[in-house]
Write a structure and sequence with these properties.
heterodimer; A: 57% strand; B: mainly beta; 7-stranded mixed sheet; 11 strands
């Protein structure tokens, strides 16, 4: 089988740092992606990790450990507009299907 | 502007009726995907196509059908065999050669049953 596990909800305050974890069990692994989705909107791509380590893009960073089948998304200097659902997704092979986790709803409070 | 367009934004289906959701992209992407999202849930893959005239079933293909006659278009038909079709449907596309294989999503179609 295949599964991606991430927390269902996370709450943090404006200006803080939050980490959203994702563990995966899949029959193949090509890369781990993160997507953001505001309520009622389309998911938008945030980051991608194919190799172990940290990828940084502005306030957002993503980490991958292939040996632990684990990754996380780190959001720094949180803003109210960061309130959204965040999905991790695994691609099992190049050009193959992308499998999404259930999503983590992030609420940023003033 | 390049992008991926889904229509209609809202669609209502009567009992026993087939309905077709449109998805068009002008990004020259090879691959296209259909996902279903239920409230508070993740995205589940219905069908995907890596090349024109070819497509594969995803995890929840039963009650759905697709075609890929043109690179730009990947319509999804929700048939009467799909007994619980109420959901938010998202179409996406990607370019195989992109190192991050980033998916670009349309704005979605909300399908409801009358």
């Amino acid at each position: 089988g295949q599964s991606l596990e991430q927390p269902s909800e996370v709450t943090a305050v404006e200006g803080a740092i939050v980490q959203i974890n994702c563990t995966y069990q899949t029959s193949g692994f090509y890369g781990l992606s993160w997507y953001q989705q505001h309520d009622g909107g389309a998911p938008t791509f945030l980051s991608y990790n194919a190799l172990d380590g940290l990828e940084e893009t502005g306030r957002f960073s993503s980490f991958l450990s292939r040996s632990d089948s684990y990754g996380y998304l780190l959001l720094q200097e949180l803003q109210m507009k960061d309130s959204a659902s965040y999905f991790c997704a695994v691609r099992k092979n190049q050009g193959g299907k992308l499998i999404f986790g259930q999503g983590t709803e992030l609420s940023v409070k003033p | 502007d390049g992008g991926i367009t889904q229509s209609p934004k809202y669609l209502f289906r009567k009992e026993g009726q087939n309905v077709t959701l449109s998805c068009e992209q002008n990004l020259n992407h090879d691959a296209m995907y259909w996902y279903r999202q239920d409230p508070g849930q993740g995205l589940r893959l219905i069908y995907y196509s890596q090349i024109v005239n070819d497509f594969q079933k995803g995890d929840i293909a039963e009650g759905y059908s697709v075609s890929r006659e043109k690179k730009e278009s990947f319509p999804l038909t929700v048939t009467s065999a799909q007994k619980n079709p109420t959901a938010f449907y998202l179409c996406a596309s990607s370019h195989h050669s992109a190192t991050n294989e980033k998916l670009f999503f349309g704005s979605g179609t909300q399908l409801s049953v009358l």
